[in-house]
């Protein structure tokens, strides 16, 4: 697989002084794949993405991007990458179309071809009617779609997206998801970081969960759920809650695979949620509310990385 991979890493390390941000990870990204990085703050996602984007040099290990060495061939690699940063950095002094045509010129694209690509991409991201307007009046979702269009203007082999929908409202998020899904259908290889578990489930063919600079799990969203969680989760809320939830969790021990007491509810992980609820009542417990739902990638993420907030 390594010979066919657009990204191949072996024992990849990134240190900043005494701090190890990325601690010996291995990964492969195949052509046409949508690959995701999940992890809490400080997990090493951004440091890995910066090395893939050829803007940060690996400390140790082997990294190949598009079959090339990013240290020796960084300029050639960057010419074939599309990058959508976490914060939009569009030029407010240029029109919407000019943001694309000017950027295309950096890659040696002719003026006529730059205009053709810009018009095609603006139609793709549903911004054709804004082509001659300025950037500033655009909504957050429109700016995000324009940034994605700009990342595609050099017809890249690989597109890097850092938190592509952070700060967007639900409607804008779903429209961006739709555009990214269309890129997947075209065979574009996507590599993204995200804090949204539903986004990872929607977009990623495969992903890794990072914590403390290491990869702690890898697979498709469905495979990760099957391997690290149960088919269903029962959410139990008790009237006296809060400090009592830990006591309730002790009384639920043995029902399902595990019990997770939270400040506002108790989570009971079981393959058969209805059977677990029946057992809860047989033990004489009377929760104020009961919700049985399917297990999600968020359950996997919190199980692997913990619930402690990392600044």
Automatic annotation (TrEMBL):
Q: Which family does it belong to?
A: Belongs to the ABC transporter superfamily.
| Keyword Cell membrane in record | yes
Origin organism is Planotetraspora silvatica
Record localization: Cell membrane
Entry keywords, A to Z: Antibiotic resistance, ATP-binding, Cell membrane, Membrane, Nucleotide-binding, Translocase, Transport
Location of the ABC transporter domain:
7-237
UniProt cross-references to Gene3D superfamilies, sorted A to Z: P-loop containing nucleotide triphosphate hydrolases
Q: Give the UniProt record's GO annotations in the biological process aspect.
A: response to antibiotic
GO CC annotation terms, alphabetical: plasma membrane
Provide the GO MF annotations for this entry. ATP binding; ATP hydrolysis activity
How does the entry describe its membrane topology?
Peripheral membrane protein
Pfam families under this entry? Answer: ABC_tran (PF00005)
InterPro entries named among the record's database cross-references: AAA+_ATPase, ABC_transporter-like_ATP-bd, ABC_transporter-like_CS, ABC_transporter_ATP-binding, P-loop_NTPase
Q: Which SUPFAM superfamilies match?
A: P-loop containing nucleoside triphosphate hydrolases
Q: What is this protein called?
A: ABC transporter
Task: Identify the domain of life.
Answer: Bacteria
């Amino acid at each position: 697989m390594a010979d066919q991979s657009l990204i191949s890493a072996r024992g990849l390390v990134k240190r900043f002084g005494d701090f190890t941000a990325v601690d010996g990870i291995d990964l492969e990204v195949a052509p046409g794949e949508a690959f995701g990085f999940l992890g809490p703050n400080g997990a090493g996602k951004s440091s890995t993405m910066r090395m893939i984007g050829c803007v940060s040099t690996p400390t140790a290990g082997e990294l190949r991007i598009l079959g090339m060495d990013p240290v020796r061939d960084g300029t050639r690699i960057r010419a074939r990458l599309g990058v959508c940063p976490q914060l939009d950095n569009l030029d407010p002094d240029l029109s919407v179309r000019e943001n694309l045509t000017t950027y295309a010129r950096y890659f040696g694209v002719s003026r006529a071809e730059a205009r053709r690509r810009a018009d095609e991409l603006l139609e793709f991201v549903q911004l054709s009617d804004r082509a001659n307007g300025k950037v500033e009046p655009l909504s957050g979702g429109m700016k995000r779609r324009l940034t994605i269009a700009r990342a595609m203007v050099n017809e890249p082999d690989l597109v890097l997206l850092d938190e592509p929908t952070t700060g967007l409202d639900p409607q804008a998020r779903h429209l961006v998801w739709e555009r990214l899904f269309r890129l997947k259908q075209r065979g574009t290889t996507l590599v993204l970081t995200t804090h949204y578990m539903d986004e990872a489930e929607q977009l990623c063919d495969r992903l890794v969960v990072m914590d403390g600079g290491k990869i702690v799990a890898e697979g498709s969203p469905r495979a990760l759920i099957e391997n690290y969680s149960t088919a269903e989760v029962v959410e139990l809320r008790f009237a006296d809650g809060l400090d009592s939830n830990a006591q309730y969790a002790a009384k639920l021990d043995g029902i399902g695979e595990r019990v997770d007491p939270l400040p506002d509810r108790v989570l009971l992980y079981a393959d058969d949620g209805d059977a677990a609820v029946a057992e809860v009542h047989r033990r004489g417990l009377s929760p104020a509310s009961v919700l049985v739902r399917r297990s999600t990638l968020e359950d996997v993420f919190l199980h692997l990385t913990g619930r402690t907030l990392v600044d």
